[in-house]
Amino acid sequence: MTRSALTTPPPDATRPRPLPGAPAPGAPLGPHYSRCFGCGDGHPNGLHLTALTPDGISVVAEFTVEETHQGAPGLAHGGVLAAAMDEVIGMSVWLFQRPYVTGRLETDYLAPVPVGTVLHMRAWCNGMSGRKAYLEAEGRIGSPDGPVAVRAAALFIEVAMEHFAKHGDIQTIADEHHEYEVNP
Ligand SMILES: CCCCCCCCCCCCCCCC(=O)SCCNC(=O)CCNC(=O)[C@H](O)C(C)(C)COP(=O)(O)OP(=O)(O)OC[C@H]1O[C@@H](n2cnc3c(N)ncnc32)[C@H](O)[C@@H]1OP(=O)(O)O
């Protein structure tokens, strides 16, 4: 992965460990919000990522590239692939039971991704320091050990829950609050 200093953990960063109450290995991770573009099962034309955690500290997910995700004819749009990487990384940092938002996302595109591909994605945390989490993800074509098409490195910043109430839709947060308690 080609990454900048901003997404490289500092020497004093700590490695995350699974938290008590983390989803059981292999258990599916439900959407954190039903209308989320990345994972929401109620989004009419979102990415509909399906995910699980193998170990409580990383996430594997599948993204089926549909016609609505095209850039060039028959090929996934790079921005859509970046959104998928952002989402799977967001799912992985949510395992640490604190709210984070994307501060910076760097993406390498290594191979075109045709419509109809199932992109097998994996995201993990390379270190945490203060409010900052340093994360990485990859997307492989066709199978978990298929060729790597996309890699990403990210800096996520921890925020207070008030971030979502202040800048977002507080009524919807209240309506879906149970989701945040039981799902990553
Ligand atoms: C009840 C409701 C629940 C809802 C449940 C949600 C569940 C969780 C969703 C999971 C999956 C979502 C899907 C994927 C995740 C998204 O897509 S999140 C949406 C996209 N991201 C955003 O909207 C973030 C917009 N940016 C911001 O709000 C603010 O800039 C931030 C990131 C909160 C930082 O602002 P701040 O809190 O004022 O902090 P600030 O002092 O500026 O920065 C803190 C540190 O981070 C560094 N930093 C900040 N930004 C950057 C940057 N871009 N580059 C490098 N360094 C940076 C600063 O330099 C500073 O470093 P130090 O000086 O401490 O060394």
Automatic annotation (TrEMBL):
UniProt keyword terms in alphabetical order: Apoptosis, Cell membrane, Cell projection, Cytoplasm, Fatty acid metabolism, Hydrolase, Lipid metabolism, Membrane, Transit peptide
Domain Thioesterase: start-end pairs: 74-142
Catalysed reactions listed for this entry: decanoyl-CoA + H2O = decanoate + CoA + H(+); tetradecanoyl-CoA + H2O = tetradecanoate + CoA + H(+); hexadecanoyl-CoA + H2O = hexadecanoate + CoA + H(+); dodecanoyl-CoA + H2O = dodecanoate + CoA + H(+)
Ranges of biased composition (kind: Pro residues): 8-26
Stretches for region Disordered: 1-26
Gene3D superfamilies with a match to the protein in the record: Hotdog Thioesterase
Coiled coil stretches, renumbered: none
EC number: 3.1.2.2
GO MF assignments: hydrolase activity
SUPFAM superfamilies, sorted: Thioesterase/thiol ester dehydrase-isomerase
Cellular compartment(s): Cell projection, Ruffle membrane; Cytoplasm; Membrane
UniProt KW Transcription regulation keyword: no
Family, per entry: Belongs to the THEM4/THEM5 thioesterase family.
Designated name of the protein: Acyl-coenzyme A thioesterase THEM4
